[in-house]
Design brief:
Blueprint lengths: L2 E7 L4 E6 L5 H10 L12
Antiparallel strand pairs: 1-2
Length: 46
């Protein structure tokens, strides 16, 4: 279980992550934080 796909735009400084239902939004945020990046806003759909 995990990430199904992702898309990153360096130009727009955005990322979209499509994940399996078992992967929580909080886990995705924690994983992004481990890379040293900051999430300024986001949402979970589903």
């Amino acid at each position: 279980p995990g990430v199904k796909s992702y898309e990153v735009s360096l130009e727009n400084q955005t990322a979209s992550v499509i994940a399996e239902p078992e992967l929580s939004y909080e886990k995705v945020l924690a994983t992004i934080a481990k890379t040293g990046k900051k999430v300024n806003s986001g949402s979970a759909d589903g």
